[in-house]
Structures are given as C-alpha cells and as structure tokens.
Amino acid sequence: MKKYFEVSTKTIVAIGLGAAIFMLLFMFVKVPSPVPETSFQTAYGLSALFATLFGPIAGGLIAFIGHALSDAIQYGSPWWSWVIASGVAGFIFGFAYKNTKVDEGEFKGKDILRFNIIQVIGNVIAWLIVAPLLDIIIYAEPVNLVFTQGAIAALMNSISAGVIGTLLLLAYAATRTKKGSLTKK
Amino acid sequence: MKIKLFSYNVIDTPIHRLSGLTKLACFLLLTFAVMFSYDIRFILFVMLFSFIILKVSKIKFSQIKLMIIYVLIFLITNAILTFLFEPEYGVSIYGTRHEVLRIFGRYNLTQEQLLYQTTKVLKYASVIPLGIIFLLTTNPSEFAASLNGVGIPYKVAYAVSLTLRYFPDIQRDYQNISQAQQARGLEMSKKAKFGSRFKNALLIIIPLIFSTLDRIESISNAMDLRGFGKLKKRTWYSKKKIETGDYVAIGLSVLIFAMSILISIFINGSRFFNPFI
Amino acid sequence: MRQKPIIEFIDYSFQYFSQAEPTLEDINLKIYPGEKILIVGPSGSGKSTLGHCINGLIPFAYEGEIKGTLKIKDLIAKEQDIFLLSKIVGTVLQDSDGQFVGLTVGEDIAFALENDNVNIHKMHDTVRKVAEMVDMDKLLKSSPFELSGGQKQRTSLAGVMVDDVDVLLFDEPLANLDPATGKTAIEIIDDIHKRTNKTVLIIEHRLEDVLHRDVDRIIVIADGRIIADMTPDELVSSSILFENGIREPLYITALKYAGINVHKDMHPSHLDTLKMDTVIQPLTSWYKRIEKPQKQDEKPNILKVENLTFSYDGKRNILDDVTFDIYEGDMISIVGKNGAGKSTLAKVLCGFENQDLGNIYYYSENIKDKSIKERAEIIGLVMQNPNQMISKSLIYDEIALGLRLRNVPEEEIKERVEKVLEVCGLSPFIDWPISALSYGQKKRVTIASILVLEPKIIILDEPTAGQDYHHYTEIMKFLEKINKMGVTIIMITHDMHLMLEYTPRAIVLLDGKVIADTKASIVLTDTDLVSKANLKETSLYYLAEKAKIEDGTLFVQRFIDYEKGVRETNED
Ligand SMILES: Nc1ncnc2c1ncn2[C@@H]1O[C@H](COP(=O)(O)OP(=O)(O)OP(=O)(O)O)[C@@H](O)[C@H]1O
Ligand SMILES: Nc1ncnc2c1ncn2[C@@H]1O[C@H](COP(=O)(O)OP(=O)(O)OP(=O)(O)O)[C@@H](O)[C@H]1O
Ligand SMILES: [Mg+2]
Ligand SMILES: [Mg+2]
C-alpha cells in the first residue's frame, strides 16, 4: 500500500525533474491576474499535481528546491521565508496522495472536493502562518505588511493550485482510464 | 527566455579553488550572520567583506546586471510598502521618537524609521553578493556533493543534481511544445482574454508534464539498475579535496558568524543596535 | 559439452499486474557464458520485458506474477535484489538521455561506483581506464548537450562496464543514431565482446545493422513466446522474419525478388560470407529485366529556399547558405549526421526561428513576414516526439484543436476531422483516449492534427524512429497515400531504407551546408558522400559489386523501381 513518507528512486527522480519544471513555470509561465502587478503562479498547480502523485516529501521538496533555485538565478540569493513556505504548501498538498485514486483513473466530484480542501488548507497554513512568521523572525518585517501580503498570496495560490492543479489531475486521470482493463486484440 | 543555470566560468581565482562544500558552508554561515543581526555597523562590515570577495573572484558586472535590477525593484517596492503599512515601526522597535519630516496624517518620517528601513535594505542587499559569489564560482557538478557534505541526505542532494542536469532539456522541450502549439493557432501574446490564458498555458504545460512523467520512469529504472540507493552512504566523483585555503575560509566565516551572535548578546543586548538611548 | 548456462529460463511466464494476459509465456531458454545473442520480434512482443526479467527490474520495479524459474549464474533471480543482479548484468537502455544522469561524462561513468561508496582515488582511476576502452577519455568533462548521440551511447556503455559485469544487455542501442554512428556502436560492442568474452544480449529492430558483426544465435519472440532460436544463416533463409513483420536485410530481399532460393548453406547472414556461385546469373538477368518507369512531367516549384543562413547564438552558423527547390507533389528526404542542422532547417521553414539571411518563397511569394500561425497553413511540421504535440486526452479533440483555435464553426470542424480520421485510418478509435494508443498510432494522430489544417507541404521529423517494420510500413503507406492526394512531403530521417524505398530525391546536409541534392540511389552509393555525411552505403550496392554488375548505382535504382511496382500491385 502507499505510504506517505516512503522515498524510492522514483520519488527522487520525480523530485529532481519536478523541481526543474517548477523552476521553468515559476520564472516564465505566470498568468497575469486582473489585479495589476500580481500574477497566478502556474508552478503551484504543478507542485499540487506532483504532490498528489508522489506524496508529501516529493511535493515539499519540489517546491522548495524549485523556488530556491529560481530565486537564486533571478535575485542571486533565495528568499528563505517564502521558499520555506512554498515547501510547506507542497508538503501539505501531498496529503491528497493516499486519499485519491487518480493513478487508477478515478478523479471525480468527491475527489476533486477533497483535493481542493487539502490544497486550500496547505496554502492557508503556508502563506497565512508560515511565511509571515518567518518574515517577522528572520527579517523583522512589519506585522501588518506581512499578513496582508500573506493573505493575498494565500488567495492567489489557492486559485492557481485549485484551477491548474484540478485540471492537470483531471487530464492525468483521463490518460489512466482503461489501463489494466485493456486486453490485446 | 534562454537562461543558463549557473553561468559558472572556469577561471582560476582563490575563490574558485575552494571546494564547493567550503563555499556552501561559508555562504550559509555568513547569510545567517547577517540575517540574525540588525546592527547596521556589522551589516556594513559584512557587505564590504563580500564586495572584496566579489572583486577577488573576478565576477564581471555584466554577469550580474539582470539580478541587480530585479533586486533593486524588489528593495524599492518593499521599502515603500513598509513605510505605507507601518510608518511608526522604527519607533516601536527603538522606543524613542525623533521626527525628521512631517508629511501628513500618520505618515511622518522619524530617525528611528529611517534607521530601521536603511538597516533592512542593507541587510537584504548584503546577502545578494554572497549568493552571487557562491553561484558563479561553484562548479554545478560539485553542488550536490557539497549539499551532502553539509548534512543533507544524499538522496535529496542527488535530486538537486538531477534538477540541474535536466533543466536545460526541459527548457528546450518547453520551447518546442510552445512553437508547435503556436503553429496550430495558439495565441501567446497579451491579446488573449484572461480566461483563455489559463487554458492556453495548460495546452503547453500538459504535454510538457506528461512527457516528463514518462521520462521519470525510464530515468529511475536506469538509476536502479546502476545501484542507486543501495548503501547508507555514497561517494562523489566531483568532490574536491579540502585544503588549507578551505580551513582559512571556514575559520573566517565562523568568526564572522560568532561576531554576529556575540555583538547581539554582549554589546547590543538584543538583535537591534540602538543608538537612540 | 559446454559449460553451465549463465542465464536459464525454465517454463517461465510473466504477467504484468495491470494486464489481463501474460506478456511472456512458456519461455525456455539457455544462454551460455561468452555467447553473443540477438533478440528480435515485433513491437510489443515482450522483448524488453524479457530484458527486465534478466536485469531484475521485474519484479523490483514492475509488479506482476512470475511462474516458472529463471536462474542467473545459478541463483534464482526473483530471490535476489536488483543491486546484486546489477553486478552480474549491466544494462544499456534505449533512451540515452534517460540513462545519462550525470552532469558530465566522468560523473556519469562513475555513477555505479559512487553508489558503491568506492574511494575517490580508485574511482577516478577506474573511470579513466574504462573511458579509454570506449574512447571517451578526452571528453570526461563534457556535459550531455555537448555530445553527439554516439558519444552518449559510448558513455552509457562505459557506465555499465565499470562494474565488470558478466552479461551486457542492450535494449535497442541503435535507435536515434545516424547510420554511421550505429555501425560504430555495433563495432564497439563486438570489440568489447571479443576482448573481454562477456556474454552479450542485444535487443534490436535493425537486424541488418546488427548483423554487420557476427552473432552466435538469434532469438525471435512473437506474442510473448520464443518462436525461433537459430543461427543467423538459418534465420535469414527462413520465412520467419517475413511472417513476423521483421525486416530482413535488403540484399536478401533483392535475392528473393530475383527468384533465388536463399538457403543456409549459402551463408546468407552476411554479405562477405554469401556464396555467390548460384546467385550471379539469376540476379543479373533479373536486373536486366526491370523496366524503367515513364518519365514524369515537370512540376511547378512550390518552395524555393535561397541562401538561407541561421544561427542560434549569433556566432556559429547552424544553417549556412542553404539553397534548394521543392516541387509540387515531391516526396523527399533530408539526411545527414546528428547535429547537421536538419531539425533547425525545419524550424526555420516553419517560422519557429527567423533566418538571419536569405529568403523562402512559396510559389513566388516571399513568406519572410508571415507569422508562425500563417505559415502553418502552408507548411505543417510533425515533430519527432508525438508526446510533445499531444495536449488533449481524446483523439477527436486533439485533431480539432487547431481548427477550434482558428474559430472554425463546429459543424465544419466535425466534417473536416471525420474526413481526416478516415484518411489516417483512425476512425475506429474515434472515442478512444489517446493514452490507449500505441506509439505508431499516436504518431498518426499528430500527423492527422497537422493534416486537418490542410497545409500544402508537410515536414516530418524522424517519422519512423523506434517503430517496428510493420508500423513503419503502415506509416509510410499512409504518407504515400496523402502524397498522391497532392500534399508535398519532406522527411527528415536517419533511416536509409526509408530514403531508398520511398523518396526518389534526397538532400544531404553537413554542418549546415547542402552537400548533395540528388537521387537517393546516387547518395547511397557515393562512398565519399556517405563517409562525409555519416550515412551508410546500402548493402545492395555491395551485392551488385559482388555479382560483378558494373553499374551499382543503376542496380540500386532498378531495385527501387521494382520495389515500388511490388508495393503498388500489393495495394490493389
Ligand atoms: N509496465 C507495464 N505494465 C503493463 N503492461 C506492460 C508494461 N510494460 C509493457 N507492457 C506490455 O507488455 C507487452 C510487451 O511489451 P515490451 O515492452 O516487452 O515489448 P517490446 O517487444 O520490447 O516492444 P518494442 O519493440 O516496442 O520495444 C506490451 O503489450 C506492453 O503493452
Ligand atoms: N534551441 C537551440 N538553441 C541552441 N542551439 C541549438 C538549438 N537547437 C539545436 N541547436 C544546435 O544546433 C545544431 C544543429 O541541431 P539540429 O537539431 O538542427 O540537428 P539535427 O541535424 O536535427 O540532428 P539530429 O539528427 O541529432 O536530430 C546542434 O549543434 C545543436 O546543438
Ligand atoms: Mg522494447
Ligand atoms: Mg533533429
């Protein structure tokens, strides 16, 4: 049976390649939102998909590594508080791993709801609690500011993970149909 | 969107000669030292130190121009937002109030706010050269070995190495897929409506992810067949030997790190340097 | 009597967890130390599965039910872990980019040693020694993007040799290699076999290419069962290859066309050993009998490429002053070694990249300022990897995508899609999810999705790579059909057979320059050209030489004409 914290070679490879896609999306594939100067990060949809397919460790590390390396390339140094928050969100998304049977081709009403509840919880914890607290502890940022930023991030990232993640999982489940039941002609 | 991962260039400087492990350890020590301290004198000192190292490692301005622009934008936005949200934050930290300029309503500039915000900007800014030095002087091959060296489990370190190995491949795939979709009539420009942008992004992401999922399977088979994960430990082909220079560098970094803590405890009595009392 | 077998299957069956029926059935097979064995069979017959059983991926990475026994070096395979087996069996997988996990050649070769926690000095020594064996010792610091396909293959080989394994298993080592590099790969494998006396197993579709060097036995798998286990001479003279959709060596086909009864005593597995006494006379008279097809009329120029020059980085020209004409209704090949600039040329023609110099004319219109989308109505590109093009889960939606993006009314879409599905032979699958299709069928879906946009010209990048002969023929027949309907077809390929059989004309690229633009039969018989562009001379040419037929090129051309005639009669 599936275990949450088992790390096989496949998990490691999924982390490595998942983080590479995460970086690419994080830096180049943002969907601009109607609110000026903000955008939806498609990368969080990706970490939600990989977390659901490979578990919390993969989800967490993909976002952590991907975010840290993208920051390093763009700014010269990772922004630790947000990098860690990304990782936490990815980790929590991974709790959908055991609860959905998407790799058997099942992803319907109830599964979609469950995935989205988990995903929203993850985003709220990461962006409304972890990121602001770390900002205060590490950088002594003003409390008001960090919680406002956190609330916006939680909202935006829930929408990206929700919309992109759900659509990706639906597409993935569709590729899985009929397998196993397929017999040779 | 052509980005080279680390624009690591092979030149011979004392910094390039250090082992990756040393550089990672120093980077972490110094970063944590400046993150911890809110003493502007100490931060200026570390900044000066890192600029000297930047010079020694012969990094050219053209290599880091883009990063500097990104960082400046970030710093300016952050400074404005901080002032808008908490114009009195400095006052609450330092416990005194020396007004400089009256603007309007609650927005008055104080010496305390100025010191707090200047310290913060410098603090952010001083981390950047450290990161840049690490990135531009470390051979990517050595990176995973170094992570393992500072205590990260080797499997996770190897995952990072795989990220570096396959990022260029994935970048090229992305380009191919996006061109193929455009040829079929996909509108990539800003002209597309908001709702359809999500959809368009998916038309590219889906093939990218699904072909990557296939690849994950074949790579993990290849690694299993060559004994990955067999033992509790593994060695690294590209790990450099630790030499005298490495000890010197680590010693120096530990010293600076200790300074940060000691100054806070014994001189300032807190993380903040307070000249107002 | 010989030694004990190193690999022994006894009444062995395997069924994948998700399959309804066993993939391997009743396998009984003994392989002795030092043997060199080739495994062939149609796609999906279970060759890779057999390989997985030997190297331990089954049951380590793939779940399923095993019946019977498999012994490797007297050990019961399913009771061992994959790490122990990996010390006995070294596997080189088909996908060289998947197998190349290191950031540099040196690291990749060292991978198995690193995992064994070998001391770093010893590791560097071993790596250097093994790299010398495969001639890669000067490139230890190169990264995978700087290497050619053949160099990557060498690296993979070195990567398994560091372990001093007893058995080397190659799963399709030749896929994606240009013909000359493929030939070298077979030579390297053979040299290592001779020098170290390891047991070598090769799984490969390209029978003739593997037979370039001797093998001891060939095993044919069809539908999960071993249906033949014989010497190469016996196999190529039997009808087994033909019956199972495996391509026989081209010179054998020529002999059969000439009405010669190929027999194992003629040693037909290799041209050098082939006994010619009973061959020369019938072959020569057959060759003289073949009629020339009528001359075709001149056709207008559909695409004119003039002095095209392009570089990605502004430094190195990937295309250098490329000039050629394509005529309406042409079916031509673009060939050349790995990295010659073939795919880049296709991208520039489609507007994915813009040329630095030169012009492209469609009839007489310069298409320089047309966008990707506008050019797509003239020139459609089918990329090599279908997975990079497919973004929908249903066949219908995938093919309709381009039309929907162009806001074509839904009724018209339905009409056009159904027509294309019919042409491509995909109508029976209209409601299937794409994931249930085979690779070859997926490839046809991508062709259909381009065809539905009704371009005048289609470019296909490696249309047949990794396909077995059956699917290959299916795809090529289909392309011939749409070509007859008036679509001009340009194919980028490493498959010399394809070029010979289906495209009368070929353009040869070398370092971004056109070095030949002529008949396929001439390209493949010009020794100088062949070696410059990393191609491979066709065995037909040597056959002609051995039969003392003076004009080898004409012999090859006549073979092509005859073959075409055979195809046309088969179709009716
Ligand atoms: N992991 C798997 N799970 C279920 N079925 C599988 C799996 N791998 C392969 N099969 C099935 O087993 C059969 C044999 O596959 P295999 O890969 O061994 O064929 P092959 O002879 O190597 O073909 P090719 O020449 O195309 O590589 C196929 O029908 C395939 O669908
Ligand atoms: N997107 C790119 N950016 C930079 N360089 C590239 C890019 N694509 C290809 N190249 C380089 O251009 C050269 C020609 O590549 P191209 O893919 O056109 O070769 P090819 O003839 O199709 O080779 P193959 O037979 O291996 O497919 C190679 O040296 C390659 O490294
Ligand atoms: Mg196979
Ligand atoms: Mg190519």
Q: What value does the average pLDDT of chain A take?
A: 88
% residues in beta strands of chain A: under 5%
Fraction of residues of chain C in helices? 25-40%
Task: Supply the number of structural domains of chain C.
Answer: 3
Give the strand order, joined by hyphens, for the main sheet of chain A. 1-2
Q: Would you report the number of β strands of chain A?
A: 2
- Global shape of chain A: globular
Structure summary, number of beta strands of chain C: 20
CA-to-CA gap between the ends of chain C?
A: 54 Å
| Backbone shape of chain C | globular
Number of domains of chain A: 1
Helical stretch tally of chain A: 6
Summed over residues and divided by their number, the pLDDT of chain C gives a mean of: 87
Oligomer: heterotrimer
Question: What does the model show?
Answer:
The complex is a heterotrimer of chains A (185), B (277) and C (572). Chain A has helices at residues 9-28, 42-54, 56-75, 80-93, 109-139, 143-176; strands at 30-32, 39-41. Chain A has one domain: Arp2/3 complex 21 kDa subunit ARPC3, CATH 1.10.1760. Chain A has a two-stranded antiparallel sheet. With 185 residues, chain A is mainly alpha-helical. Chain A has 6 helices and 2 strands; from the N terminus they run αββααααα. Helices cover 71% and strands 3% of the residues of chain A. In chain B, strands 1-2 form a two-stranded antiparallel ribbon. In chain B, strand 1 and strand 2 form a beta hairpin. Chain B is globular. Helices cover 39% and strands 21% of the residues of chain C. The radius of gyration of chain C is 25 Å and the shape is globular. In chain C, 49% of the residues are buried. Classes of the chains: A mainly alpha (185), B mainly alpha (277), C alpha/beta (572). At the A-B interface, helix 1, helix 2, helix 3 and helix 6 of A face helix 4, helix 6, helix 8 and helix 9 of B. The structure holds adenosine-5'-triphosphate (2 copies) and magnesium ion (MG) (2 copies).
Question: What would you say about this model in short?
Answer:
Chain A is mostly helical and 185 residues long. Chain A has six helices and two strands, in the order H-E-E-H-H-H-H-H. Chain C has three domains: 234 residues, Rossmann fold (3-Layer(aba) Sandwich), CATH 3.40.50; 74 residues, no CATH class; 239 residues, Rossmann fold (3-Layer(aba) Sandwich), CATH 3.40.50.
